[in-house]
């Protein structure tokens, strides 16, 4: 033990701790401080009291952004909790070439949201793949305005998020499936349970905890959406800015002469409270489930 | 360690008993199930990879070729690389790629070094305040990064690093989550190994290098891969920090490109492929470590 001096652990911890304090903890406190100022992107700014929060209450753009966030979350949740689990079951069995499929299914996760959104922009364009095919098949007479209609744009961004998220949650489920007892599955099979029944009665209860964790991850990331909506709407937030997300509003106030870091910070605080809610709800759900 | 978790990966070729055909699925796959599985796999493959192939195809289609036909053609009739040349000539895409690479390398280096040092200290060394330090790292997980992004920008600006690549890289160079992942990985090591090393007179640093590090290579590679992909793909933070188009990273540059050439999908397609192909190559090369690391983490967690 003599070679282990008291400061050794601290020498190892200090770089990470410094980063934590400078880039996480201090910014959290500073966000609150800034939200009471009218700080500008160029510098300066002074105390304005609760003015930013009063403005928030009457901000129509924020109301749309919050509505969009809620819709985003509600639509993404069922798709992204269920589809990746089915995918994980599909790639779980070690068939020849399965690694290739796993890697390929993960590709959309690896690609930048910007790249993915630009690809989808071209697919959903008035003259793009989807409209072209649909017109060819005679399903529609004119192109559907996926990128210029308020609700279709939101829906397009949601589909993009779901598509891009499949592989990510698939991997988390895959890891969880490894922990579901094989014995249980085998016992159920010997007792004559069909694969579907085994999925419902063995697999799903076995990954229940993971499912709740994934629900939290999905909710929080749906509320934080930025790149998909930003790129698909060409940075404009859709018609009349009605397709903004809260993060898009924060970004808009972060730059230029019109920028207001104080107001952006007040919006950040809104974002914080909005994301905390689903976390608390689902964490509670988890605890109750564990007791039952 | 892995032998415990390794499942029999291949079906024993011994004759499977016909009578227990219901339990068939476990050690082997019936031919019919196999066919169904592969059909589904290919179906999902088309959904996940299709859009990328479509974009690749658009980027290779000649300027004279109609890309708006009602009958979409996947294979270009007049394949050409000219759009790639045009993109790199008009917009410094290769400079953007280099900028992204610089940021990604800094972030990977910082995380691998910083997170493994801290993770080792918190999990393997006794010191006063250890619990508090661990609690601090855990606490930050609750906070979505976007919430603090504005005041992070103010901090970086005060360091005089606004509009610099270092400013883009710096905040992400040691992630709290990575510290916790390393903490978890180091904790899986039996304490007796450490005690034996201490008896042999090894100090903390020697235990870190010779005992700790070799056993957490899986987690380190996962962290490195994720840090690289995260830095390469990040959009919001560089968009806020960088104002000078010469310093743009690839994602910010691409968005700029799409605004400039919004009427030419072939050029945008070429630009996206320049950003996409390197990351796919990186991932395809390292996916072995990635999937192994994920499984390792799952077993230990």
From TrEMBL, chain A:
This is Carbohydrate ABC transporter membrane protein 1 (CUT1 family). Its main location: membrane. Signal peptide: none annotated. It is found in: Cell membrane. Belongs to the binding-protein-dependent transport system permease family. GO terms for biological process: transmembrane transport. It is a multi-pass membrane protein. CDD domains: TM_PBP2 (cd06261). It comes from Kribbella jejuensis. GO terms for cellular component: plasma membrane. Residues 66-282 form the ABC transmembrane type-1 domain. The keyword Ribosomal protein does not apply. The chain crosses the membrane at residues 7-26, 70-91, 103-123, 151-176, 206-226, 261-283. The keyword Transport applies. Keywords: Cell membrane, Membrane, Transmembrane, Transmembrane helix, Transport.
Automatic annotation (TrEMBL), chain B:
The keyword Transmembrane applies. The keyword Repeat does not apply. It is a multi-pass membrane protein. The chain crosses the membrane at residues 35-54, 101-120, 132-153, 165-186, 207-232, 267-286. Keywords: Cell membrane, Membrane, Transmembrane, Transmembrane helix, Transport. It is found in: Cell membrane. Its main location: membrane. GO terms for biological process: transmembrane transport. GO terms for cellular component: plasma membrane. It comes from the Bacteria. Pfam families: BPD_transp_1. PROSITE patterns: ABC_TM1. Residues 97-285 form the ABC transmembrane type-1 domain. This is Carbohydrate ABC transporter membrane protein 2 (CUT1 family). It comes from Kribbella jejuensis. The lineage of its organism: Bacteria, Bacillati, Actinomycetota, Actinomycetes, Propionibacteriales.
């Amino acid at each position: 033990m003599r070679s282990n001096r008291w400061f050794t652990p601290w020498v190892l911890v200090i770089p990470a701790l410094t980063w934590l304090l400078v880039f996480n903890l201090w910014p959290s406190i500073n966000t609150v401080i800034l939200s009471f100022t009218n700080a500008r992107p160029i510098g300066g700014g002074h105390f304005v009291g609760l003015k930013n929060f009063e403005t928030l209450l009457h901000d129509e753009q924020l109301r749309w952004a919050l509505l969009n966030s809620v819709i985003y979350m509600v639509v993404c949740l069922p798709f992204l909790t269920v589809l990746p689990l089915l995918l994980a079951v599909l790639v779980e069995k070690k068939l020849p070439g399965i690694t290739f499929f796993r890697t390929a299914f993960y590709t959309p996760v690896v690609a930048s949201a910007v790249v993915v959104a630009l690809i989808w922009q071209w697919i959903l364009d008035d003259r793009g793949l989807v409209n072209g095919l649909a017109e060819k098949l005679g399903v529609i007479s004119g192109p559907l305005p996926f990128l210029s209609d308020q609700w279709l744009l939101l829906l397009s961004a949601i589909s993009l998020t779901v598509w891009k998220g499949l592989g990510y949650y698939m991997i988390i489920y895959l890891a969880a499936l490894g922990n579901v007892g094989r014995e249980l599955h085998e016992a159920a099979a010997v007792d004559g349970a069909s694969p579907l029944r085994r999925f419902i009665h063995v697999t799903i209860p076995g990954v229940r905890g993971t499912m709740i964790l994934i629900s939290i991850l999905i909710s929080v990331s749906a509320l934080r959406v930025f790149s998909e909506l930003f790129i698909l709407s060409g940075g404009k937030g859709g018609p009349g800015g009605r397709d903004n997300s809260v993060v898009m509003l924060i970004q808009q106030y972060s730059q230029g002469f019109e920028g207001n870091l104080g107001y952006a910070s007040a919006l950040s605080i809104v974002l914080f409270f909005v994301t905390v809610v689903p976390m608390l709800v689902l964490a509670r759900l988890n605890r109750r489930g564990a007791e039952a | 360690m892995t032998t415990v978790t390794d499942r029999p990966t291949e079906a024993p070729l011994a004759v499977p008993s016909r009578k227990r055909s219901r339990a068939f699925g476990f050690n082997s796959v019936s031919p019919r199930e196999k066919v169904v599985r592969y059909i589904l796999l290919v179906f999902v493959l088309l959904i996940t990879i299709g859009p990328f192939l479509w974009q690749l195809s658009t980027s290779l289609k000649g300027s004279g070729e109609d890309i708006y036909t009602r009958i979409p053609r996947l294979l270009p009739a007049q394949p050409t690389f000219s759009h790639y040349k045009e993109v790199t000539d008009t917009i410094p895409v290769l400079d953007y790629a280099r900028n992204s690479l610089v940021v990604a390398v800094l972030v990977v280096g910082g995380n691998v070094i910083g997170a493994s040092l801290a993770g080792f200290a918190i999990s393997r060394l006794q010191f006063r305040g250890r619990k508090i330090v661990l609690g601090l790292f855990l606490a930050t997980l609750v906070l979505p990064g976007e919430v603090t992004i504005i005041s992070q920008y103010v901090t970086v600006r005060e360091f005089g690093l606004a509009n610099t690549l270092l400013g883009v890289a710096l905040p992400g160079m040691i992630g709290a989550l990575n510290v916790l992942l390393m903490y978890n990985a180091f904790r899986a090591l039996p304490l007796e190994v450490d005690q034996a090393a201490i008896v042999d007179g090894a100090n903390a640093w020697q235990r870190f290098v010779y005992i700790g590090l070799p056993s957490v290579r899986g987690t380190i590679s996962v962290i490195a891969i994720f840090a690289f992909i995260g830095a390469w793909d990040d959009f919001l933070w560089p968009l806020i920090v960088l104002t000078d188009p010469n310093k743009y990273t690839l994602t910010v540059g691409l968005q700029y490109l799409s605004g400039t050439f919004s009427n030419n999908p072939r050029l945008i397609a070429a630009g996206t492929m320049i950003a996409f192909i390197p990351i796919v190559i990186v991932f395809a090369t390292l996916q072995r470590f990635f999937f192994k690391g994920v499984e390792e983490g799952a077993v230990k967690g």
